[in-house]
């Protein structure tokens, strides 16, 4: 019996996304860890067992913040062909998205403040469907601008209203 | 452009343009042509203001009697208030009518309105996709109707222009003119569907029949209290409570029966009002739906906007053998606030075989409009085509319809081929979910029983996990049984749902991309979910828990060439 699979898209995000995502995760996790430690220190009688649990929690937060970006970097991929935009993401739940060039209505690039420090940008490709936006994350910002330009040129050359 | 579509409007114009000399001269009309809304609207607003008057009079009477006024004084005050209110409402409407002008030029439909803030609203005629007419009972008495002209775009407030109100003739002329329609090409050959009053038997088959009465009473309780009936309502409530407590064996069944009877009556009345005089016609390039016993509505849907049809069968309706038909169309808004029906609804609940036939016809109508588009290439061996698997038509499809079903598919390509069921793992997944839900409920119940101070909780709480288990198992088995998909010449058909079974036929040319997801547990079962994104309806339609190979091949064949470059086909032995 033959098996059919989706091949991974060709390109990875820029390697700089790993430090960027790490920073993001740390920004998310550090307050959690600090809050846990503070709660333990000020609100409890500091029993040893609970202390151990809090320590494990803090370490888990930090490990997650360090490991998750690397794991995501391994699975996130993208590809743009002449006919379609193709992405894969997700670690536990894999999600593949395909948007044909002929249906693309809008191409956006976005750069957050922290993202800018790393010289990265996201490209979002929107189709007529409310559910069909395809996001390519963590590209080199010049490359992202170039890609957006290319996509816009292709979609403008396509006739019809793309619905 | 489209000048032939502009029909002369002189006969109707005389109706309301009495003091507008411009409207009478064709030459002036071309340059200027601004027309007024129907002046009879004043009468309508006068009548409508009476409701306001009633409320005010009730409040005023209560207040003044509380202040020890004489009856004569109270009557005089009420009369004065009534006159003031009616005058104010009519004056406002007069100002609104005087400041509103509309005109139809060969290029655009324009409306200038606004008493304080002037607005100029303009819709290009070639963008007009719908002209919906709606006449509430009072408007109907005065021969008026409200026309809503839509461009079928989702975006923003500028997609709709409302002329409130026009005379019925004007509105009808406007509808025909805007939609380039000529009398001689009216309905093709009879309506697609027309109301049969026997369908009213499906009206009570909703959850609202059981819960509606209680909800309405609950909703009324507060306002009734506010209008000074609080002593009455609280007395009734306490009497009812006493009755239930003292004689539960008579009171409870009786109350439930009354509740049900009121619910049935309410749903039947609602059905009659919403769907009385229902008629669905196919006109060139569009579908026209007319319905409403008291408030009449006429909705026009451009076939160009149609991307498919949905047959929805909620549990009660399904058990009763009925189904509903809805459109999958672009730019169709969600249910408007005061509407009793979904904007996408094409028909009242009707017998299942008729629903399928209507859906097939509507789908065929949608397909016609695309004929000759570049993606209209013939299919390479569609999965589950009738030739391959003739025996797979669901057993619950009416026998006489099965033949139709297949003939229809061969004939127009718009019908539905046999459904391909999904792998057994899909059912196992659902059963596992039901068991997990049961385990969690059991744990919660055990905790509640251990912690509660009341002994009766401990005695009565144990059936809960059993109910969850039974309902969950039923939903799992039914949900898995209802999973299915099919690929027709024009449509991708998918079906899912245990409580509400939805069968969606999505035009393959309306698919604007794919989202394919595979969760951790799906991956272990060799399943995935493919979701076709589209600009119409909900925005995406899924084929849930389909086998990995089948799903990917299905997606690849539905839109030829789109997914193909990203697939790899191996010949290793599959795990299944």
From TrEMBL, chain B:
Q: Which domain of life is it from?
A: Bacteria
The cross-references to Pfam families, in alphabetical order and at most eight, read:
bPH_2 (PF03703)
Bias-annotated ranges (Basic and acidic residues): 13-31
Membrane-traversing stretches: 42-65, 71-95, 202-221, 251-272, 431-454, 460-477
Name the UniProt key words of this record, in alphabetical order: Membrane, Transmembrane, Transmembrane helix
Keyword check for Transmembrane helix, yes or no.
Answer: yes
Q: Where is the YdbS-like PH domain?
A: 98-178, 482-554
Region (Disordered) residue ranges read 1-31, 366-390
Key word Membrane present:
yes
**Mind telling me which PANTHER family this protein's record contains?**
UPF0699 TRANSMEMBRANE PROTEIN YDBS, UPF0699 TRANSMEMBRANE PROTEIN YDBT
Task: Tell me what this protein is called.
Answer: YdbS-like PH domain-containing protein
Q: Which organism is it from?
A: Nonomuraea longispora
């Amino acid at each position: 019996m033959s098996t059919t699979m989706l091949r991974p898209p060709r390109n990875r995000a820029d390697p700089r996304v790993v430090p960027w995502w790490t920073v993001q995760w740390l920004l998310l996790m550090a307050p959690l860890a600090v809050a846990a430690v503070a709660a333990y220190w000020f609100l409890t009688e500091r029993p040893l067992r609970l202390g151990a649990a809090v320590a494990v929690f803090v370490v888990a937060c930090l490990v997650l913040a360090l490991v998750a970006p690397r794991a995501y970097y391994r699975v996130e991929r993208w590809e743009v062909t002449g006919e379609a935009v193709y992405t894969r993401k997700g670690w536990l739940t894999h999600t593949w998205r395909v948007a044909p060039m002929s249906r693309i209505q809008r191409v956006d690039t976005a750069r957050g403040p922290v993202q800018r420090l790393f010289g990265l940008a996201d490209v979002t490709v929107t189709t007529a469907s409310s559910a069909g936006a395809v996001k390519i994350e963590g590209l080199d910002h010049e490359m992202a601008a170039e890609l957006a330009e290319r996509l816009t040129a292709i979609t403008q050359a396509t006739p019809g209203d793309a619905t | 452009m489209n000048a032939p579509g502009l029909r002369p409007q002189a006969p109707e114009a005389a109706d309301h343009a009495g003091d507008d000399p411009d409207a009478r001269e064709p030459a002036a009309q071309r340059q200027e042509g601004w027309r007024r809304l129907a002046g009879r609207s004043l009468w309508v607003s006068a009548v409508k203001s009476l409701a306001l008057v009633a409320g005010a009079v009730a409040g005023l009477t209560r207040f003044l009697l509380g202040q020890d006024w004489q009856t004569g004084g109270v009557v005089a005050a009420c009369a004065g208030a009534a006159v003031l209110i009616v005058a104010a409402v009519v004056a406002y409407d007069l100002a609104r009518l005087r400041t509103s002008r509309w005109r139809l030029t060969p290029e655009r439909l324009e409306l200038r309105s606004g008493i304080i803030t002037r607005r100029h609203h303009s819709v290009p005629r070639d963008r007009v996709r719908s002209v919906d007419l709606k006449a509430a009972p009072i408007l109907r008495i005065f021969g008026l109707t409200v026309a809503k002209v839509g461009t079928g775009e989702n975006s923003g407030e500028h997609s709709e222009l409302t002329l409130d109100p026009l005379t019925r003739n004007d509105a009808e002329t406007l509808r025909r003119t805007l939609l380039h329609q000529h009398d001689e090409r009216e309905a093709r050959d009879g309506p697609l569907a027309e109301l049969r009053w026997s369908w009213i038997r499906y009206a009570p088959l909703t959850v609202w029949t059981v819960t509606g009465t209680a909800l309405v009473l609950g909703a009324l309780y507060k306002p009734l209290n506010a209008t000074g009936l609080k002593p009455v309502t609280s007395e009734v409530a306490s009497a009812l409570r006493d009755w239930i407590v003292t004689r539960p064996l008579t009171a409870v069944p009786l109350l439930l029966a009354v509740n049900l009877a009121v619910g049935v009556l309410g749903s039947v009345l609602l059905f009659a009002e919403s769907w009385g005089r229902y008629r669905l016609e196919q006109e060139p390039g569009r579908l026209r739906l007319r319905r409403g016993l008291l408030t009449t509505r006429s909705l026009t849907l451009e076939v160009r906007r149609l991307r498919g049809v949905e047959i929805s069968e909620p549990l009660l309706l399904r058990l009763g053998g009925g189904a509903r038909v809805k459109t999958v169309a672009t730019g169709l808004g969600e249910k408007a606030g005061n509407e009793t029906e979904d904007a996408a609804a094409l028909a009242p609940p009707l017998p299942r075989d008729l629903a399928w036939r209507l859906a097939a016809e509507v789908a065929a109508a949608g397909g016609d409009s695309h004929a000759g588009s570049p993606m209209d290439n013939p299919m390479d061996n569609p999965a589950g085509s009738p030739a391959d698997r003739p025996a797979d038509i669901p057993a619950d499809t009416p026998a006489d319809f099965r033949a139709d079903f297949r003939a229809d598919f061969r004939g127009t390509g718009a019908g539905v081929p046999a459904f391909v069921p999904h792998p057994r793992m899909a059912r196992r997944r659902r059963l596992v979910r039901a068991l997990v839900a049961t385990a969690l409920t059991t744990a919660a119940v055990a905790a509640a029983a251990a912690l509660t101070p009341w002994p009766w909780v401990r005695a009565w709480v144990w059936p809960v996990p059993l109910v969850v288990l039974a309902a969950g198992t039923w939903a799992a088995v039914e949900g898995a049984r209802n999973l299915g998909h099919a690929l027709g010449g024009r449509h991708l058909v998918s079906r899912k749902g245990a409580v509400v079974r939805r069968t969606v036929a999505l035009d393959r040319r309306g698919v604007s991309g794919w989202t394919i997801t595979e969760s951790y547990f799906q991956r272990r079962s060799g399943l995935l979910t493919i979701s076709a994104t589209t600009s119409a309806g909900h925005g995406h339609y899924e084929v849930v828990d389909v086998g990995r190979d089948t799903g990917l091949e299905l997606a690849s064949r539905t839109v030829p060439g789109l997914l193909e470059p990203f697939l790899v086909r191996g010949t290793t032995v599959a795990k299944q």
